[in-house]
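User: Modeling request: complex.
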Amino acid sequence: MAATLVRCLRDTLKIIDWAVISVLGRPFPPSDPCLAVAHYETAPEKTYSLDNVFDSAFLWAVPKHRTTIEKRLKRKFGSPDYGMKIYLPKTNLLECNTCGHHHEAGVLCSHCYEKVIAETKEMQEKIQENLGLSPVEQDVVVLYDNERQKEPEEFWQGKRIVEMKKERPPWFSKNLMQRSTQSPASSNDVKPTELA
Amino acid sequence: MNQADVSKLISKLRINVAPRHRNLKNPDGPEGRLLKLRKTVTGLIKHERIELNYNRADEARGYAERLISEAIRYGDCHRTTMELADFWLLEKQLVHKLFKVLVPRFREYPISYTRLLKAPDSPGIAFKRAVLELRGNPYPPLTVDSTRNRALLHNVLLDEAAKAYRAQKVTGVTSEILEKIEREHPSSPAVETQESEVTKSPNISEKSGVLQEKSSEPSYEKT
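Assistant: Request completed. Predicted assembly structure:
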């Protein structure tokens, strides 16, 4: 009984030894005596000489060819199609015949525009106040102070009148094509003018 | 081989229409672009003058012109046209305005129904601005109208042409009357007196310096 016990123990220890060797790659404790040595790497000595400079990757990014004059000029000055890099004078500036301010050709004069848009916004607010969501079936006639009295009441019957509680601005002439207050011409004949 | 005549399918729009629409940027994609354009067209019909960015204004202009031209061509009893108006005009009181106010206003127009003007730049705003308006709106005009100034060259020439036309009409009428009298009462003394009166009536053509010929055929007729 004791012999079998000893044999079992010995087998177990062999299995453990085998496991340690398979994991570590060497028996534990080490079979032969050895010394543990503390080891550190010293930094390599850098010698800065011209020969070493060309060994490293210092000069990999380098132009291979001379940039052509076209590319150079394009980089320096830009292009009309892809964005100019230099400033050019604007030769398309005109004077407004009405107010004298300058504006770009093809664009409205800013001075006159501000005036007209401010008046337009006032008129639009007033119209929307009166209109609401009812179906719109008539042209809107916008009247300023003291203009309603100039025509008899029958003239205004059946028209959508919006009264602005202010004087007519001097630059907004009444003699414009307001078809809601005038009937269109009924004949095709050319009529004589005041000068003719 | 036999190409169908597609030139009469829609009314010719009197504006420049690009071959393809702009891809207006919108978080909802193409559907969002159409919704934004519907709002723009609704705003234009409602207010008759709106200020917005140039690109959207140009796009909306095309749709607005097409809508008005269809309304003029077919009227309000046409189902497809009414559906079109219902789609484009988000506020339904404006459908009434389109057929009852704008169609009678624009029916005889030989030119476009809208006007697209470039607004001045403001500092800090990168996009070009524009004003889109319907012609015949009640607001003060943004551009100077030089069609009525009788001193300008185009009006001077038109006035002279009108005078020549009237003079020619007058001579035509009097010669008709003379022929009629001759037929009814041949070789009567009244004929000679009326002939002398005819030479006096077209005084206008002799006095004006613009007309060089004193012959019966005015110069404009020959061109």
